[in-house]
Amino acid sequence: MTLLEDTKYLEVEIWRGDAAGGEFQSFQVPAYESQTILDVVSWVQQNTDPGLTYRYACRVGMCGSCAMMVNGTPRWTCRTHVKKVADGDRLRVAPLRNLPIIKDLATDMDPFFDKWVAAEGKHHPSKSREDQIEQIDPENSARVEANSGIECINCSVCYAACDTVAGNPDYLGPAALQRAWTLYNDARDAKKQVILDAVSGTGGCHNCHSQGSCTVHCPNELNPMKAIAGLKRETAISFLRKAR
User: Fold this and answer.
1) Res 79 pLDDT > 50
2) Alpha carbon 184 to chain centroid distance?
């Protein structure tokens, strides 16, 4: 990376602390061309504060592990360029909202994945290894609906963006519900009613306020709000059928 002319600096505030508490600390970071937020955090850790804790892996938007709050918005830091989000020359980087802090910018993802399990976000096979592989029509409407959510990489950006999660810790969250909707529309899944029962209970899809932050902030441009609307519709139909 090449330093900008006359070497300008960014004023960067980074959260330091753990589950017991913490505070923002300020750092001056050289401004570079094509600089990402992850570049900024890495520079601080490598040059100023080696104790800074954060999480990343691929650096190219494939794994989602580098997600953090940047100036109050959840983002993949490896794909977010400083010039697009800096407030002048100022940045504030914090751990993802709605998740327990382990240390500094690293959060505990267990609650996020526990909700995937609670939403039955796992494939329920309808065939065994010995059965012939089922042929799926890629143009089938249910398959098209299922395909619309399969690019979720579990980054938890939508979970951090969700105000319903912030106000209701029992809420399953947009990623888990989108996964449930994907499986519900998969012809190879054998337990559709189990999925509907799981997402219609406490903390389920009907807790969603349809504010749409999940869809607005999804880095992969998925639409969890549409998936949740689908679950609301199907769970209501299921309820009416049982009531007959």
Assistant:
1) yes
2) 20
